[in-house]
Amino acid sequence: MVFETTGTSIFLAVVIVVLFLFLSRFKRPKPNLPPGPRPWPILGHLPYLLFTKEEPQFVFERWARQYGKIMTLELGGQTAVVLNDLDLIKSCYQSDTFNGRPKLSTFEIAFGAGAGIGTGQHLHWREQRRLAVSLLRTIRFGEGVSMAEIVEQEAGKLLADLATHNGHPIDLTHILPKAVCNIVCAFVFGKPFEYSDPRYILMLWLVYQNFKLAGPSAVAYSSAFLAKLPFGPGKRLVDNLRAFKQFAEDHIFEHEKTFDRNDIRDFIDAYLSKIENKDSLPIDESEIFKHLNLVWCVNDIFGAGTETTAGTLRWAFLYMILFPEVQGKLQEELDRVVGRSRMPTLTDKQNLPYVEATIQEINRHADIGPLGVAHATTQQTEILGYTIPKGTLTLANAHLCHFNEEYFDNPLEFNPDRFVDADGNFIKRDEVIAFSVGEYFDKKFILYKKLY
Ligand code: HEM
């Protein structure tokens, strides 16, 4: 009798699960969302992206051809709307409605519920970004060294390091981030690290790993489903972030011990000074500037500033190897404008149109963020007749813009000359959206202009 009851229960449970899986395969998650491919039960479209050797942007490209300017995907419990058209991306990202960030479950599990610059929205985003930008305008290191000089110093160290290999082949994967990140570290921690510092090397390795694990647009960071699994990429992301949190906290602790409000050395000091003056801040701001959010900010700047730039530089080296004629033209322009007795500086940029064109072509062709960085809607909104609920993750399909034949002749070809006019002037093109678009980009770009 007992066996019969148990057998019936198991049978019923199996029937319910199978029925649920069957129904959820055909159910659209929410009404009036844009169309999209048929999702799998529970995992949605993740299996299409996880169980293939194809890069996700190419899977997205095929879907975009089928579903048009806008499509819906289910990514492990998170509804995502993908914008496949440049004008649509521009009009959406120019409005505040599309400039939120999705909930980042992996970060929340690793750090606690807070928000940084690139991970926060509304006031968190505005105030913490404002602090970073204003500091970049004023900061001087040690003997009054400027940010631009720090960049030059790191470039010099990198060249010296490369020279030690005496022309032998080397793997640049882990050399470039050391130099790039040190510029960010000077700003955040007030000092660069030794290239041989084991903890620094470990942190760079974790950032590199997380970039690969989180995938294009860093969507995996927001999947609560992946983050809570006891194995797999979500768990590894969380473990890596926990290790980074410890690193950030150790540095914050050191700063607290030596903090002097009259000598603000770096971003951490500037942030601690905000925390110290909490009582004089408007009530909303005093909620933002706290220890937990400082950890988020340190992670945001360290993470966002390292692999993006190092990855782009790795591509740049590859293009120079593959296209020696481009390398020759660059060298000729640099020799003519800058000469060989000094390093180029940012003020030379306006006289280096071919260098500018090549950088823009690298950003287009290397396409290192083919789906941008995930945004989220801050309220329910109507678009092209569809209803997008509040909190929907949105992705800008940069890949389609970068390889669109309507915008670029022969887009697969690497060709910096496409950005140079008949008089040899640099042509800046809106269709290259490696750094995002519109007002959002302009605001964010201030941060870059000060750093690089
Ligand atoms: C080739 C280099 C880089 C590329 C292609 C790149 C690309 C991007 C993109 C696509 C976004 C998301 C924009 C959006 O949400 O629509 C972003 C955000 C961000 N990046 Fe970069 N980035 C690069 C270098 C850097 C560097 C050097 C830093 C240094 C600090 C940095 C810091 C940030 C921050 C803090 C955010 C969040 C900004 C915000 O939400 O206001 N990035 N980046």
From TrEMBL:
The chain crosses the membrane at residues 6-23. GO terms for biological process: organic acid metabolic process; xenobiotic metabolic process. One of its GO terms (molecular function) is heme binding. It holds the Pfam family p450. It is found in: Endoplasmic reticulum membrane; Microsome membrane. The keyword Endoplasmic reticulum applies. Belongs to the cytochrome P450 family. This is Putative vitamin D 25-hydroxylase. It comes from Stichopus japonicus (Sea cucumber).
